[in-house]
Specification:
Elements: H1 3-27, E1 37-45, E2 55-64, E3 71-73, E4 80-83, E5 87-91, E6 97-100, E7 105-107, E8 113-115, E9 120-123, E10 126-127, E11 133-138, E12 143-148, E13 158-162, E14 165-166, E15 173-175, E16 181-183, E17 196-199, E18 201-203, H2 209-246
């Protein structure tokens, strides 16, 4: 098989992978606290006999865009957003601690404090549970206070727990298939007093929808070019076979 055919095929395959990452970003433009994935192409020389005149196209996922999304005021007492750098600690599906910027919180029927996607929020001593209450407030340091159900007196404000917020080195974080940020090595981080939050606000996705659409068009054109190369190589191979038969 002609090397150029395989090279064009590998280029088309990697373009589809990049398109998948870009499509995922585009699908999450309205997801609270979402951080977009980054992808790029890299040239890889073809090793073996012959001249190094051709290269493979490889797509890489060098990391995640950790820039902050826009902050939107909602007025809802269970909506919180990180001010500046930092993350909320949550319990992942595997039971290990992970980190997110999504602050769309809710209290379940059993009193557990979770994110909108059902992740358990972590406090000072593990998962946070909220007793029945008439009012709930969350301080800038993450302290959760409530007026117990049935008291109706603001002077009975009781501190329940404090949301664990961390401020890791971005270089130690990696985004995994669960969509959460994990520390390399899976060692839980200690809470940071330098992180603050705002109640009644949410951080939106940091995906730029216009840029994602433009990139989708560019990747589609790249894929079309790769398929044209494959078609031309196939046609050339057919012509060469006929010439050999004539000889």
């Amino acid at each position: 098989m002609d090397r150029s055919l395989y090279i064009a095929m590998s280029g088309a395959k990697q373009t589809l992978l990049a398109q998948g990452a870009n499509a995922n970003n585009l699908a999450n433009t309205q997801t609270t606290g979402f951080k977009s994935d980054l992808e790029q192409f890299r040239s890889m020389p073809v090793f073996g006999a012959g001249y190094p005149t051709r290269v493979y196209a490889m797509v890489e996922k060098p990391g995640t865009d950790l820039s902050a999304g826009s902050i939107q005021t909602t007025g809802r007492e269970l909506d919180v957003a990180i001010n500046g750098d930092g993350y909320f600690a949550v319990q992942g599906a595997d039971g290990k601690e992970a980190y997110t910027r999504a602050g769309d919180l809710r209290v379940t029927a059993t009193g557990l404090l979770q994110t909108g996607s059902g992740l358990q929020l972590v406090g000072q001593n593990g998962p946070i549970a909220i007793p029945p209450s008439e009012k709930l407030t969350i301080g800038s340091d993450g302290t959760i206070s409530i007026i117990p159900l049935g008291t109706g007196n603001a002077t009975t404000l009781t501190e329940v727990d404090r949301i664990k917020m961390v401020k890791p080195d971005p270089a130690t974080l990696e985004k995994r298939t669960d969509g959460l940020l994990h520390v390399k090595g899976d060692q839980p981080l200690t809470a940071s007093a330098d992180v603050s939050l705002a109640q009644g606000s949410l951080e939106g996705s940091n995906v730029n929808a216009i840029n994602a659409m433009v990139e989708m068009i560019q990747l589609a054109k790249n894929f079309e070019l790769q398929t044209k190369v494959m078609k031309n190589v196939d046609e050339n191979s057919g012509v060469s076979a006929k010439l050999m038969q004539m000889g």
